[in-house]
Amino acid sequence: MNTADGGLAPAVRSILATAAERPGGDERLAVDARSLPDAFADAEADGRIPVIAEVKPTSPTTDGERTDDPVELAEEMVAGGAGALSVLTEPEHFGGSAETLERVRDAVDVPVLRKDFLLREEQLDAVAADLVLLIVRFVGDDLTNLVSAARERGFQPLVEVHDADELSAAIDAGADLIGVNNRDLGALEVDLSTFERVAPEVPDDATLIAESGITTTADARRMREAGADGLLIGSAIMDAEGRGESGDGVEGDGAGGDVRANTRRFTRAGTEGKP
């Protein structure tokens, strides 16, 4: 594992320190997962950009906190066209929980990603989800074993990379769902060109997701034009004030309606597919 990586931002090191102490589940899970590629195909067929909308109450890189019922927010995201959801289960820094994921997954019919910092196999057993996030930089040489362990339980592993070396590790581990994080975990800075550099090296048969830094519809179109099959969007959807862009023609109505409107802006941002 790379949990002692001195190149990480202090906030990330703190997240990993608490993740290392977090226990796993009491028994091995077996999950009947909803297919993310199928959900993306359904969105495309419906003329929507495939978006994974993230239920994220707070984070070290955003200001404030949303206290709305996460189930209500999730339902509004789906009503706004989200093809899948991501739910934070990291409690100390993101305000997430396994219970929140369970409630959300019970309430919707789209795939739900467990967004957390998983370091050991037993941590996969904390809660059932359709997908689990495995971050190459954090799991290091354990990646292949964790990918296999996730699949044995029925999970779809989404393997996150940031550069060409991490992508090679993901491919070697057999990853077929690959996320490229535009956020540098060293400086916590976002650069959308990260995706543009890494995407051309991703195998054509993999499902490719652009993560972090997508704050406008222009960003969404840019990532799609660079090859993204889907987009993972958190803060720009959870932002209670919205990210008002002239010409979107969608307004929120409070009580979660802003989240529906924010989601709809991105799912309607255009239907450009992979070149």
Automatic annotation (TrEMBL):
Q: Which PROSITE patterns match?
A: IGPS (PS00614)
Which keywords does the record carry?
Answer: Amino-acid biosynthesis, Aromatic amino acid biosynthesis, Decarboxylase, Lyase, Tryptophan biosynthesis
Q: Catalysed reaction per UniProt?
A: 1-(2-carboxyphenylamino)-1-deoxy-D-ribulose 5-phosphate + H(+) = (1S,2R)-1-C-(indol-3-yl)glycerol 3-phosphate + CO2 + H2O
Q: Where is this region: Disordered?
A: 242-275
Top-rank EC class of the record's enzyme: lyase
| Superkingdom of this protein's organism | Archaea
Q: Where is the composition biased (Gly residues)?
A: 247-257
- CDD domains on file: IGPS
Signal sequence extent: none
Which Gene Ontology terms cover its molecular function? Answer: indole-3-glycerol-phosphate synthase activity; phosphoribosylanthranilate isomerase activity
* Domain spans labelled Indole-3-glycerol phosphate synthase: 27-241
Q: Identify the InterPro entries for this entry.
A: Aldolase_TIM, Indglycph_syn_Halo_TrpC, Indole-3-glycerol_P_synth, Indole-3-glycerol_P_synth_dom, Indole-3-GlycerolPSynthase_CS, RibuloseP-bd_barrel
- Biological process GO terms, please? L-tryptophan biosynthetic process
Q: Which HAMAP family match?
A: IGPS_A
For this chain, the family text in UniProt reads: Belongs to the TrpC family.
Q: What is this protein called?
A: Indole-3-glycerol phosphate synthase
Question: Which organism is this protein's natural source?
Answer: Halorarum halophilum
Upper taxonomic lineage: Archaea, Methanobacteriati, Methanobacteriota, Stenosarchaea group, Halobacteria
What is the gene called?
trpC
